What we know:
Blueprint: H1 3-10, H2 17-28, E1 47-48, E2 54-57, H3 66-69, H4 77-88, E3 109-112, H5 126-143, E4 149-153, H6 154-167, E5 184-188, E6 194-200, H7 205-209, H8 215-228
Parallel strand pairs: 2-3, 2-4, 4-6
Antiparallel strand pairs: 1-3, 5-6
Helix pairs in contact: 4-8, 5-6
The structure holds iron/sulfur cluster.
Iron/sulfur cluster binds near residues 13, 128 and 131.
Amino acid sequence: RDLAELGSLLVECRACPRLVEWREAAAANPRAAFRGQTYWARPVPGFGDDAARIAVVGLAPAADGANRTGRLFTGDRSGDFLFAALHRVGLANQPEATSSDDGMVLTGVRLVAPVRCAPPANKPTPEERRRCGPWLARELELLGPGVRVVVALGAIGWAAALRTLEEQGWPVPQPRPRFAHDAAVPLERPDGGTVTLLGSFHPSPHNTFTGRLTPAMLDAVLDHARRLADL
Ligand code: SF4
């Protein structure tokens, strides 16, 4: 099976009744700014380079962001901030992401998530995260040992990534490593090799409007990831 096949299977998943209902309700009642648009309203596959050396892990699609456009981080302010940074450090061919056919090409990077359907209040339940974990694990397995760095966005994304990898058989150190901006933790892959887990504050409006995360701070983490990945 390859990444495209995995994506085709993923988009058919309806394993979490609460999230299926939520993703479809968002499509039926779009925000005023998006009225008239057809929402994707399905699980959102990974996006980016099939030969990625860096995986960027968020938490889950936003109801009016990726759940609308069908592409992770595309169509909301967090994504706008992230794609602009990826472009500045040379990992994206353009700074703006607006839709799934906007010409965006990522080099060496793939955007993934531990939960693939938009959850109410952006909070999946532990059970929903566990149910979705095998999709992320399988994607990382298909990307293979070429992946050298996993950038986790936010303390919640960091914890979700670690729990998911642990449940999927990765030997995660105990106690689990603590999140910090630019924290770097080596993790063993179950199929051999090492991946560095790298933390970054989440590029949410809450963090970027308050200056907790500046463009220079995100650029520095992505640049760190690039160096660790030899890109
Ligand atoms: Fe399936 Fe994951 Fe969506 Fe649950 S969150 S319905 S497991 S794709």
